[in-house]
Amino acid sequence: MRKSKRITTAIGIVLVVVLVFSFILLKAPLYYQVRSYAVMFAYSTFEKKFSLLDENSMVMKIPGGSSTPEKDWFPFVMTFNDDKGFSDFMGRDLSLTILYNFGGFSWSSSSSAFFDKNSPYFNSFYGGYVVRDNESNKIYGFTEQGEPDVEETFAIPQYDYKYLVLQSLGCPASKLKMEVLSMEIAENIRYAGYDDWVRIDSLMLVNSPEHKFKGNRRAYIQYGNPLLKEKDEEFKLMTTYGRIYARYFPEFQSTVYLYIMSPDLNTVNQCDHAILSKSVIAPK
Question: Engineering a disulfide at 224: which of 112, 160, 174, 283 sits with its beta carbon 3.0 to 4.6 angstroms away?
């Protein structure tokens, strides 16, 4: 009887300790980081099964933040598909798979660097797009003469940033902005193990992601909580740099883009050299 009581008491103590530590964890900055890792890993794994990569028997491995010694980017690159949304946006039947990464978490903050305006990874993304035109023999992002179609090329990051990122944060439709201010195009670039890439460097006017915390938006699961103070302007305009590499892969009947976006040009160059250029694109 005494032994049974001791066991019951011990179990009770363990449960109390677990509950206390669970409560502490829920209130600690670490919780937001762990939640983001767990949810985004599971969701991204699910999305991969329905991606153009899987459909094309294609490998597209872009290194994540865990590939660098610095605490810079989210540990792994995520996958998202939006065939219908992008088709509606462009007015024709297209398939779109998005691979993306953003500024990572620190151990002491409930927010990722994506929201931290003092971080070199503030409002910064890198990753890839795989696009296929399902309606015609047209190669997406290129003219019939093989020249880069700048309008189609920039339509992808515009759709991605304005309607998948900013709107998920609550930016009003009337404020959404992504305007190319200047660009420089270079052709016949060797990159990621292949010749004949086109590189476009640009300066853009976009909305900042800064805004006040509003309820439990699903976007907070991946980015953490926003940091804007009550008195500051939400989604104000800012300039940012973009770099995008474009190449059509006939073996996959798809156009592949590798991209970086950051208001810090040094971040763009470092990411290009240390991460994005090490991407692997190959058949399975």
Answer: 112
